[in-house]
Amino acid sequence: LTPRSGHPILKPVDHTVDRYDLGIVGGGQLGRMLALAAAPLGLRCIVLDPDPACAAAQVADTIVAPLNDAKALHRLVTSAAVTTFEIEHTAPAVLSSLEDTGATIRPSPRTLAVVADKLRQKETLREAGLPVPVILARTAPGRSSWTHPVVQKSRFGGYDGRGVAVVPGGEDMPLPGDTFVETAVEIERELAVLVVRDTDGVVDAWAPVDMVFDSTLNLVSDVIVPAEIPEEVRRRAVEISIATARVLGEHGLVGVLAVELFLDRSGRILINEVAPRPHNSGHITMESSQCDQFEQHVRAVLGLPLGSTALRTPAAMTNIVGPPHSHSGAYRVIGRRQVLADPTAHLHLYGKPAVRPGRKMGHVTCTDPSTADALSRARTAAAAVAFAPSAQAKGDVQ
Amino acid sequence: LTPRSGHPILKPVDHTVDRYDLGIVGGGQLGRMLALAAAPLGLRCIVLDPDPACAAAQVADTIVAPLNDAKALHRLVTSAAVTTFEIEHTAPAVLSSLEDTGATIRPSPRTLAVVADKLRQKETLREAGLPVPVILARTAPGRSSWTHPVVQKSRFGGYDGRGVAVVPGGEDMPLPGDTFVETAVEIERELAVLVVRDTDGVVDAWAPVDMVFDSTLNLVSDVIVPAEIPEEVRRRAVEISIATARVLGEHGLVGVLAVELFLDRSGRILINEVAPRPHNSGHITMESSQCDQFEQHVRAVLGLPLGSTALRTPAAMTNIVGPPHSHSGAYRVIGRRQVLADPTAHLHLYGKPAVRPGRKMGHVTCTDPSTADALSRARTAAAAVAFAPSAQAKGDVQ
Fold first, then answer.
1. CB-CB under 8 Å, A336 with B304
2. Integer CA distances (angstroms), A287 to A267, B42, B138, B291, in order
3. Which of A:65-124 have CB within 8 Å of B?
């Protein structure tokens, strides 16, 4: 691979590579785990990320440039047989024109265009007859004139709870920019269903998971599989999620789709949000299912047969997040010893170059026939991990 | 990490790395799978290998130099908190002096000194009361004066069946160099037991496996777990292997030890050979056990708690080997689609830069309650993989 622009490729190790198998827009933890899943299949990955020390750069070759850099995106898609995403926030217009000129991009930039605009996402699903919260206003007013709580949402760029505000009746709308307003759902529990669509349009689903949120960080803290829901709810959650993948399939969806769902107090299921990529709610599949979301996404976008989504074992996952009063910057991990002392614990640290408060740094999944026991142990294990501001000492690691 | 010698470090991606967690002598498939196991634990690896396009270089940083290069070995051990091996054939004297000056090397170079010389290996185990074939001569004569078949073995450097010759009574000894002679065992079956010893001297064992050999390549072709042996044989095989790890523990063994065993026609178990590292007979643990040999080796040498060796599922593994009439050189993999169409198949391709006849290119493990069914499917899957001499096409991979 010879350089074709000013962006350095780091790790140009194998000069015999004519073409990478998989290009990935974004080199965070999702890109890293995609690359780690691709390696055993003998597939070579190249990621695009602005940070040369991004999580994925340790295990894949890297083009260092902003995610919306047109020249870098061109270089990525021409370097790889197929290009995919770990993040929706990129340059859909650039990618669309690359797709129009023959690049293989999965999911299609058309999928991103539907999904990245949360208003268009909701309206597309609603028009297809799928259950979404009622949209009260396509543009938020300065102040709520509703007498009940509503939800103001950013159309673009929100993630991990950012870009969402619950607004009591009569109060000012806090979020700037393009926002819309939907009804506040009385949430009984939050579920997610990971589904996958292959290049032939075959759709399959993993078992629904329970998502537990940290109300301070407004971030998913734990995921439990199987979700503790009645069979009828489970069946309906899977049906809705598979139908969602079919609707987005008409817009070019190929690969994993995470469908986040609300179960409301009247027992209705509503689609909260979708992401056309591996997702935090699917990390648990690495231990809980036959084929996990990362290998499955790689298989799907490369046109390979799908793996089995069958449940292998009940499990619980807890995120490892930079603590509220953490320093920001380089770090040394402490607590591996405590995590690994639990034989049911599987540690996943992302190797991010810096810690900061609220940043996802890793996760722990514990397997157990009892999901309550698994959750208790996953939380204990995750809480044992800390991030010290000093460098690695000689000898044993912690 | 700043360069301290003439050897280039490729992939110096994260300049904030003061020190790698793990140095690995050798960047073949074992180094690659060690690095892939270390990554989820948030551990950074650096490998030493003469080939900048070695299998491990795609997923770890690399020092490019011969494995016995004193300056490169110095650089490796001073770059990493702990250094380990994927291959025994290195420079034990250099490593011993590095260990004497404070480098943390696990297993100790003293273990390598015992194991790398197969005569010393056998004599050390025999002196400890462990069952090994009878050594008939410490130096092979030019011609066998025995009336029955004997085995001539190279003391140094043999692997994958090289350095071993069965010599009928009265015939010439074919192997050059330092060789010794032992009795030919009447082999009923070949078993392997993977064991691990941690820094506190705790030893644990995985379930014994059956090894099936390709008589043409004199290379293990299939591995089956659990081995189909009576409980008493199983118990004894594990006992002998754990005792072997304890004996080598006195010589500094830390990490995984593969113990290859003969079960002879009279029901005796004899130690054929040991390797103080992950081993082809242990690849199956990636799917068959709670914690596999690669993560376990990483845990052990870094002083972390051992994982569980418990059996998760019966399984069979088949090696994917460069075919007898293969071209030698760069290649494109064909047949992924057929392998991945079997939902019980787990594909592991090593990403080696070139194929050649007889070269281990990957393996497939199939899981199934019936090991016979698993073996049949693993063989079918492995046989579907081929290596074409052309480059990767655009679009779907094969």
1. yes
2. 30, 18, 50, 12
3. 81-82, 104
